[in-house]
Amino acid sequence: NMWIAVVVISLALVAIMIKYVLGTSGPNPFAIDTREPLKPMVFDRKLKNKVLKQGFLASKVPQDLDAIVVGSGIGGLAIAVLLAKVGKKVLVLEQHDRAGGCCHTFTEQGFEFDVGIHYIGELLDHKPMRCVIDQLTNGQLQWEPLDNPFDRVVLGPPENRRIYPIYSGKKRYIDELKKCFPGEEKAIDEYVRLSKKVANGIWLMILLKLLPTPLAKFLVHTGLATRLSSFFRYASRSLTDVVNELTQNKDLRAVMCYIFGTYGKMPKEASFSMHSLLLCHYLNGAWYPKGGASEIAYHMIPIIEKAGGAVLVRAPVNRILLNDAKEAIGVSVLKGQEEVHVHAPIVISDAGIFNTYEHLLPKDVQTMPAYCMKQLSMVQHGDGGLSIFIGVDGTKEELGLKADNYFIFPENNLDELLEGYMKGNGEESSKKVPLIFVASPSAKDPTWPERKPGKSTVTVVSFANYAWFEEWKDDKVKNRSIDYKELKEAFINNILEAVTEIFPKIKDRIEYVDAGTPITNQHYIGAPKGEIYGADHGIPRFSVELNATIRPQTPIKNLFLTGQDVMLCGFAGALTGALTCGSVILNRNLHLDAIGLPKRVKNGNNKKKE
């Protein structure tokens, strides 16, 4: 009889889940294929800035708004476009002087630099993510594949350096890895098999955020969520743990772990489930936006405007406005010393969970324990990001730069190196940076030679402890104290030494170099502790309970979250966060619509608007 009861309960659960997965009643942003023939690319900065740099004025705020979005990263722009596509009038507010969040670019001494887009996977023509991005940009955003091998893993000091190429292509990835590690075929096959199996279980993470809270909680507390999904079964296992069981070869262990930098957690603190997503994300290849990262926002903003909305910059939101019933009714924007109040029935935050709950909500709401404290107690700040921007005289051919990425590690004991680095003080640690990601944005972009002939750019990304720089956080941005500049210089010089060993031809041709530290990120992208991937992506982030609790709905009525903190980090993660947020607001499973897009677009079912 017990088994009959279990079966009955299970069937009832399945029925409710099917209703939430398939029973979508809301409007579909993808109902019409909005791709248009490619227009000529715009390289004139002044023309682009007319779209990307529209300053906030009360007079520019559209009347009768349907929603306000705080933050113009991909999570904010994507939810705004999704709503615009079903006729909603949306205002996006950005504190920086240009739209795009981590997709913005900046120019110094004639060199244009991307801050956050280095390479993106899953962009084959017929893949759902590619089709979604095509719809969100009316087919105007073009992608350029990276070289193959797209990544190179560098281990060891110059006198004992091993370079392992990483190829895309489901079969080729495996074959090339086996060539580098003869005798390790079994370990490599098992690593890929396990990664695919675990990554395929991600559907339940999305479902937990879409189901009614009581049902999501039921799945969590009965242990069903863990049983149903390989993703959650492996979520509590560290990357180090899984990889060390597969092989004794220390170089192979490092090569299996190398890509942890793309979510910012050392292997022993990283969830194997998160890592499996990254491996699978790049198996079919890697791409870069043609024309640079600013193309992303540039092609999304007009869709928001066409529906009557706007994207306004230099618009720091200092608080979310609530009515007496503690429901969100709009935001307050600081214009000089004055507050401008803007009202809308829905407020969506792409400012991250910490900024939203700790800074944007009135203090009396924050102190209500039931409200946001539980969610905040489940997450931590991610590690601070460190970027170095290098402008070089010469073409990619002259300098030996290619459309690929290098991950440089001093040795193969990654955990030990990272732990020592993060525990040290700034000055000591600047001498032993354990991970250096190096790429040339200019070499990846086929439009670069006509935009900036005879010049090249190289970007470096690593991590740094926020505490090393915290004492200078209130200094004026381009005029911080001499001690800050000295510490920054120490990092720049030590990292440049490692980079020029790999790219000797750039050494004497560097014309510009500067670094962005965690406090730089705090200023430009509003990251509370200088983090680049939002809330921390360690093992606790992937507990079933956290994923059923942190969802687009907040404890405050009419206030929603979008972007990295709702789902996962990076461009693809923040975009998935926006789809999840859109699903909740529009009462429609947009993930299912996205999965069905390639077929519909191919068959031409969704007619174009005339």
From TrEMBL:
According to its UniProt record, which cofactors does this protein need?
NAD(+); FAD; NADP(+)
Q: Where, per UniProt, does this protein localize?
A: Endoplasmic reticulum membrane
| Topology in membrane | Peripheral membrane protein
Instruction: Show the SUPFAM superfamilies listed in the entry.
Output: FAD/NAD(P)-binding domain (SSF51905)
Q: Does the record carry Transferase as a key word?
A: no
Q: Does the keyword Lipid metabolism apply?
A: yes
Q: Which GO terms describe its molecular function?
A: all-trans-retinol 13,14-reductase activity
Give EC number(s), comma-separated.
Answer: 1.3.99.23
- What EC class does the entry list? oxidoreductase
Name where it mostly resides: endoplasmic reticulum
The signal peptide annotation in the UniProt record is 1-23
Q: What keywords does the record list, in alphabetical order?
A: Endoplasmic reticulum, FAD, Flavoprotein, Lipid metabolism, Membrane, NAD, NADP, Oxidoreductase, Signal
Q: Which reaction does it catalyse?
A: all-trans-13,14-dihydroretinol + A = all-trans-retinol + AH2
Task: Give me the Gene Ontology terms describing cellular component.
Answer: endoplasmic reticulum membrane
Please, which domain of life does this record's source organism belong to? Eukaryota
Domain (Amine oxidase) ranges: 74-579
The entry's family comment says: Belongs to the carotenoid/retinoid oxidoreductase family. CrtISO subfamily.
Protein name, UniProt field: All-trans-retinol 13,14-reductase
Q: Which organism is it from?
A: Cyprinus carpio carpio
